Amino acid sequence: MSVLDGFAAYLSGELGRSPHTVRGYLADLRSLLSHLEERGLGPEDVDVPAVRGWLSHSRDAGAGRATLARRVAAVRAFTRYLHREGVLAADPGPRLAAPAQRRSLPTVLGEEQAAAALSHRSEDSPVGLRRRAVVELLYATGVRVAELCALDLSDVDRSRETVRVLGKGGKERTVPVGRPALEALDAWLSGGRPELAGPSSADALLLGVRGGRLGVRGAREDVHAHFRAAGIDAAPHDLRHSAATHLLNGGADLRSVQEFLGHAGPRSTQIYTHVSVDRLRDSYRRAHPRA
């Protein structure tokens, strides 16, 4: 087994990284190992100067901040693995600093805009019912589109009005679902899913036209099609951003929204507070004696 094969098994088996992350990390590390090989070096020679030289070469080749940050993350995981396996005497990963990223503000629908778009009626065909269920569930739960597509029938607790979600790193969370989303889901389950169900459906909550589990691409197309019909350009992640922002605007605390979104820490959630400035300003004017 090559060192990259072992690392891939470590990433997916022990760390629970997604196939997408594993592919990205391996591509980065092949680039690193090729860079080292050209200089007569191997995995046992990975150190801070060697990695910095590779990153500098990547930057000169046009790699952006996000790519460089991902490459640093890949190398950190790789050196941790090499140290554990005895290939490296010490782990240089903690001494590698990722470049600061300029985080763009998320696209957020206005609350009235979201309400108007969601109230747009899809056709009552199986695909139309599924599209409505998809957009309602994405907005109601704030889940990632891949998390939505992975839902099974048993993940929906109708009596408690919740959905069990398996998020990044295999972490499970339970999120509430509003009644409009449940009604859209009921319509799909009674009038749409039975029409598409087949031998390959298993327990998948959402199905494609061939009866298999709905894929991420199909769910994205459902969102685009529904919102185009409503005269709005929106993607699945826009619904996640909007759900988080509207919760904060409605008075939810940051910690609750963090758990709702499945963020590992509050830093990722704090980006949504930018849209709550108007609410903060209104509260200040009402409450501060010198406002």
> Superfamily at the CATH H level of the largest domain?
Intergrase catalytic core
- Describe the oligomeric state of these chains in a short phrase: single chain
Class of the largest domain in CATH? Mainly Alpha
| Helix/strand structural class | mainly alpha
Number of helices: 14
Beta percentage is under 5%
N-C termini distance: 68 Å
Order of helices and strands: HHHHHHHEEEHHHHHHH
For the largest beta-sheet, the strand count, sense and barrel status come to: 3 strands, antiparallel
Count every beta strand, where a strand is a DSSP E run of 2 or more residues. Answer: 3
Main location: cytoplasm
Subcellular location: Cytoplasm
Active site: 144, 168, 237, 240, 263, 272
Organism: Nocardiopsis algeriensis
How would you describe what is shown here?
- There is one protein chain.
- With 291 residues, the protein is mainly α.
- It folds into 2 domains: 3-95, DNA polymerase, domain 1, CATH 1.10.150.130; 111-236, Intergrase catalytic core (hpI Integrase, Chain A, Orthogonal Bundle), CATH 1.10.443.10.
- The protein has 14 helices and 3 strands.
- Strands 1-2-3 form a 3-stranded antiparallel sheet, with no helix packed on it.
- Helix 1 packs antiparallel against helix 2 (19-37) and helix 11 runs antiparallel to helix 12.
- It is globular, with a radius of gyration of 23 Å.
- The relative contact order is 0.09.
- The model has no long low-confidence stretch (mean pLDDT 86).
